[in-house]
């Protein structure tokens, strides 16, 4: 009996590996085109860290005229969550992120769910067994436990390797007898490595990294017939013709195993690029952003705030390439698709996640949108997250669009809106239904003088048909007549002679309408709100404010 007999006994129905080499030929792409993949496990929602990794794969493949595919790595059923695969696909669709190939879209190199590729892995495992490069291991949990204890006692490296690998050199006849006797087993790689040798990872981002060669007889096929991550990774990336494996840098330490697998399988090794993690500051320490601990890691967090997907991509682009932000500011008429991402601009160490920076980017993004765009997206957002506001804005779009257009189409537009939820926060006071719900809208507002003159102004002077220049001139004249300085310098030199300056007079009006001392252009707000409503709001203001 020989290795071929052993392989045939273990995998009697497995096709010859050459069948799959023919089925999945080299891709017909131009020189330099990257084939990349995003390969999540169905263990939870798509978080911003996984979005960061997928973004890198997407943009680099796209800009080189290559292919990016989605592959679901579901061979570890213990970690899988219910509807995990559907959740990943839904999350990416919601983010408007689309792969060239994948579980839903299909493609020539599928299936794209690893549990559906069992026959493929078994063919290549059979090939290794028939060549004496892999073997069935019958070690029980008790044997492995005793092995670890002995290694600890002898201060040896922990693991299944070399002379510690009990079933590594088991004669074929004995292995076959054990299998026929229905003894449990797994398939291990017979590692040809020497821990004293070094391998060098020429990482596209981090540069050259030296590590010990792998000498562990790693598991390649588990007792359930499915592959381990390491083995599936090598087989899939070869057959799917992946040119660049772009993944989180927690996988750097796995490189010696992966390199060895590509060598024993006689595959061409892809290039590796290990992305530094997003980190967060916690007290005086910095740690990796966690999808379990940090609300900011969940994409749903941004959806509920009403931050557009495009903003998240812009932020990730800013983190991804060090000069993206500078380029984006200098090219306001261009999009992410116009920028050329490169490995050498990616951070080598962890990048601190900055929510304030993301919000700042969002405000710039909103300042470039049209009022109509913001209205339509706010309507969609409110339908899902704020039914009250949805009912207020759905039947009168022009009212909100007019508000959104204030100080928008100018050289330096306002940047007070950074999310769709901000629209309500910014303009709630322009909706009487929302204003009237406030129990004390003018709480803690008082003046050291009688402000009843404001009623005279709105009743007898204010004309909603005036242009802005006439409006302001009339306002100044009225303010001067009731004790306010028209000239700021006059007030500064003799403050006791005046109630304040014209800006203070305007502040009274602004607070009356908005309850705040800051707002978009007051002339536009007053005009949109309308004089009849202003007089009603004014009565509430005068009744509430203490003199």
What is the β-strand count? 14
Morphology call: elongated
- Give the class-level CATH name of the largest domain: Alpha Beta
Approximate strand percentage: 5-15%
For the sheet with most strands, the description reads: 3 strands, antiparallel
Distance between the termini: 104 Å
- Unreliable sequence segments: none
Please, how many domains? 4
Write a short abstract of this structure.
Helix content is 44%, strand content 10%. By secondary structure, the protein is mostly helical.
Write the layout of secondary structure elements.
Elements: H1 3-10, H2 17-23, E1 35-38, H3 48-63, E2 67-70, H4 84-94, H5 118-130, E3 134-137, H6 141-153, H7 172-180, E4 186-189, E5 198-203, E6 207-212, E7 219-221, H8 229-239, E8 244-248, H9 255-264, E9 271-275, E10 278-282, E11 285-288, H10 299-305, H11 309-320, H12 324-330, E12 351-352, H13 355-367, H14 371-385, H15 387-393, H16 397-404, H17 420-427, H18 432-435, H19 453-461, H20 468-481, E13 484-485, H21 488-493, E14 500-501, H22 502-514, H23 522-529, H24 531-544
Parallel strand pairs: 1-2, 8-9, 10-12, 13-14
Antiparallel strand pairs: 3-4, 4-7, 5-6, 10-11
Helix pairs in contact: 1-5, 1-7, 3-11, 8-9, 11-13, 14-15, 14-16, 19-24
């Amino acid at each position: 009996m020989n290795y071929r007999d052993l392989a045939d006994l273990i995998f009697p129905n497995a096709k010859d590996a050459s069948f799959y080499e023919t089925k999945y030929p080299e891709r017909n792409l131009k020189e330099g085109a990257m084939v990349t993949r995003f390969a999540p496990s169905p263990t939870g929602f798509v978080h911003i860290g996984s979005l960061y990794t997928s973004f890198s794969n997407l943009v680099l493949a796209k800009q080189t005229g290559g292919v990016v595919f989605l592959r679901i790595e579901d061979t570890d059923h213990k970690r899988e969550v219910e509807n995990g695969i559907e959740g990943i696909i839904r999350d990416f669709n919601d983010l408007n992120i689309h792969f060239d190939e994948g579980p839903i879209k299909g493609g020539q190199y599928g299936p794209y769910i690893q549990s559906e590729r069992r026959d493929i892995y078994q063919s290549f495992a059979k090939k290794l067994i028939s060549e004496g490069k892999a073997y069935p291991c019958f070690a029980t949990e008790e044997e492995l436990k005793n092995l670890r204890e002995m290694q600890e006692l002898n201060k040896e490296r922990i693991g299944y390797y070399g002379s510690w690998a009990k079933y590594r050199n088991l004669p074929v006849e004995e292995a076959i007898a054990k299998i026929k006797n229905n003894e449990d087993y797994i398939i291990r790689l017979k590692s040809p490595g020497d821990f004293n040798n070094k391998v060098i990872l020429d990482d596209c981002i981090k540069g050259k990294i030296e590590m010990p060669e792998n000498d562990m007889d790693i598991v390649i096929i588990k007792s359930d017939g499915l592959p381990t991550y390491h083995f599936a990774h090598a087989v899939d990336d070869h057959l799917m013709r992946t040119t660049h494996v772009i993944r989180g840098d927690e996988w750097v330490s796995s490189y010696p195993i992966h390199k060895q697998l590509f060598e024993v399988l006689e595959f061409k090794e892809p290039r590796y690029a290990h992305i530094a993690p997003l980190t967060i500051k916690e007290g005086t320490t910095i740690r990796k952003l966690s999808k379990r601990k940090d609300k900011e890691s969940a994409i749903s967090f941004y959806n509920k705030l009403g931050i557009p997907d495009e903003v998240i991509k812009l932020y990730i682009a800013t983190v991804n390439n060090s000069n993206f932000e500078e380029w984006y500011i200098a090219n306001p008429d261009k999009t992410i698709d116009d920028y050329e991402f490169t490995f050498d601009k990616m951070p080598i160490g962890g990048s601190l996640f900055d929510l304030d920076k993301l919000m700042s980017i969002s405000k710039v993004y909103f300042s470039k949108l049209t009022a109509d765009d913001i209205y339509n997206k706010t309507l969609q957002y409110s339908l899902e997250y704020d039914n009250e506001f949805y009912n207020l804005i759905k039947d009168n779009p022009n009212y909100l669009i007019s508000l959104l257009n204030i100080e928008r189409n100018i050289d330096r537009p306002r940047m007070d809106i950074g999310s769709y939820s901000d629209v309500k926060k910014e303009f709630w006071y322009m909706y009487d239904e929302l204003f009237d719900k406030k129990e004390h809208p003018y709480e803690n507002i008082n003046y050291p003088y009688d402000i009843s003159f404001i009623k005279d102004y709105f009743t007898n002077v204010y004309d909603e048909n005036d242009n802005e220049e006439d409006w302001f001139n009339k306002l100044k004249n009225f303010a001067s007549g009731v004790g306010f300085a028209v000239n700021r310098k006059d007030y500064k030199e003799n403050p006791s002679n005046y109630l304040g300056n014209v800006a203070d007079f305007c502040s009274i009006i602004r607070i009356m309408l908005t309850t705040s001392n800051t707002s978009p252009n007051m002339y536009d707000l007053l005009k949109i709100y309308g004089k009849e409503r202003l007089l009603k709001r004014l009565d509430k203001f005068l009744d509430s404010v203490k003199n």
